[in-house]
UniProtKB/TrEMBL annotation, chains A, B:
Its main location: cytoplasm. It comes from Streptomyces boluensis. This is Redox-sensing transcriptional repressor Rex. The lineage of its organism: Bacteria, Bacillati, Actinomycetota, Actinomycetes, Kitasatosporales. GO terms for molecular function: DNA binding; DNA-binding transcription factor activity. The keyword Transcription applies.
Length: 292, 292
DNA sequence: CCATCTTTGTGCACGCGTTCACAAAGACAT
DNA sequence: ATGTCTTTGTGAACGCGTGCACAAAGATGG
């Protein structure tokens, strides 16, 4: 999954825990699949497997909605689909606007999952005058100037931001001022919003970085003792640099730290490689300096 | 953020909590911004504000990495950037393949955040022979047949799946067999993977559904007593249908439940509307039946 | 060198979420 | 009817994550 929950502090909504709410769409998808295959009932065990969760967790999740199962049998698929849809508010059709019709915005506009799940793209909005009028996914792009009018005329409460990072905050403010109270943010920025507005963030770069962390850990854990030692050396060297470089400029300090630490790390990696088979830093042997 | 963590059960990696790991990229981004503005040091309070988190949480997060701050002063921006980058494994350059070059895949390929953050698009792969050779984001798309060779030749460990749901599982199996151990999955499916493989899921539809839930709740909470009563009625009616329709077909049961419940819900909504000002189901008055 | 002021690092308590394990409920067969 | 078997629904224990609040550390000024 992705990251970046910016939620109201834990206002357990009508008794349904946030964690449960986040899983309901997952169950719903699994149930819809079963429904299409005309499966009449499903046990918590089966459904849990399909949704990739623990069966006890699933049962507890459902218990927050009510007692919708039958002991000894399981859950009625169609009935459960309806109950979850209703709970999630998908029995109504939500108009959504997408702001920022670049590569990503266009991809979102074309995403089929919208219409089939209770959402309708009410408008596509972009700041580039050259985009205005152009059809994307069968909908003519409108200019940002129209934003407020579009929101109000269509009674839009959910907005998707797919603009560059720089524009996101301002766009969010205009959306909110016009009546939007829920935002799905794809721009790599932390949005500052007033209370009462929900923001969910999807950040590709963050997801990849989390994967990289685990990947690095996997690569490192075969190199046990020696690597740990080498790491400690690198650590100490870096720390030392920090301590002794107290009056140097930040830039000089960073460079010094890199020089001191990187060779040790490289050594650790080399060691790891000779021990294990092929696991190594994917690109080269000496780690590059970090991005800007 | 997005949803869908499919992680190793909680193998707290080298003492760093998963929740902290998930926030490190956030801090890193805020720090990089400060770095570009040549800010030498930053306090936990300031940085926390920029990253949108509690300052105590931030300090605790950093404490897992070591004591990198200076009391009375704050944190050295450059030094911290380096430490976090190293911890996340971004001091090396990770080659990444993107499978499924549709709208979304193309958007991802064009996403600038890649290169600047330690990732490099090693290849774009698509099953459509017509796509083969076409340049997307300056890289020629390659056919799925080449998948294994590409992975192995480039030492790729991280794969991004942007295919339709139907193809995702098979693609993941091929990726894993070829050596990929971390997957970022954009396809709306739960991937079944062996132990040792990390999967993170980004699901637009799920994010929107979670927003819809909160949105519905906001709309409903102005309508207090009467709505609750009406809801209870709908609940009872639905339950009743379920009970009495025990021997009916699933399809008939669902229809009956919808008929019994929906009018009540509509009533509740109507009540809400007269009481509050303009908050209403965005599209029509009668909730549509849920998606297929 | 001492006093003061700022800011970190963390012990502690609390609450949420997860999981286990089992009793209650119902289906189904005899 | 009665017993057996399956599966739900949930009480209780546990562990992780969060946030408070404060002591320790160090900078800064006199």
């Amino acid at each position: 999954m992705a990251t970046g929950r910016t939620h109201r502090p834990a206002t357990r909504s009508r008794g349904i825990p946030e964690a449960t709410v986040a899983r309901l769409p997952l169950y719903l998808r699994a149930l819809t699949a079963l429904s299409e295959r005309s499966v009449p009932t499903v046990s918590s065990e089966e459904l849990a497997a399909a949704a990739g969760v623990n069966s006890a967790k699933l049962r507890k999740d459902f218990s927050y909605l009510g007692s919708y199962g039958t002991r000894g049998v399981g859950y009625d698929v169609e009935y459960l689909v309806y109950q979850i849809s209703r709970e999630l508010g998908l029995t109504q059709d939500w108009p959504v606007v997408i702001v920022g019709i670049g590569n990503l915005g266009a991809a979102l506009a074309n995403y089929g999952g919208f219409a089939s799940r209770g959402f309708r793209v009410a408008a596509l909005i972009d700041a580039d005058p050259a985009m205005a009028g152009k059809p994307v996914a069968g909908i003519a792009v409108q200019h940002t100037d129209e934003l407020e009018k579009i929101i109000e005329d269509n009674g839009v409460h959910i907005g998707v931001i797919a603009t560059p990072a720089g524009a996101a905050q301002q766009v969010s403010e205009r959306l909110i001022a016009a009546g939007v109270t829920s935002i799905l943010n794809f721009a790599p920025t932390v949005l500052q919003v007033p209370d009462g507005v929900d923001v969910r963030k999807v950040d590709l770069s963050i997801e990849l970085q989390i994967l990289a962390f685990h990947e690095q850990r996997k690569a490192g854990e075969e190199a046990t003792a020696e690597a740990v030692v080498a790491d400690a050396v690198a650590e100490a060297a870096a720390k030392d640099v920090k301590d002794t470089a107290a009056e140097q400029s930040a830039e000089a300090k960073r460079t010094a730290a890199a020089e001191a630490a990187v060779p040790s790390a490289a050594r650790a990696e080399a060691t790891a490689r000779t021990e294990s088979t092929d696991r190594k830093g994917p690109d080269g042997d000496v780690p590059a300096v970090m991005p800007a």
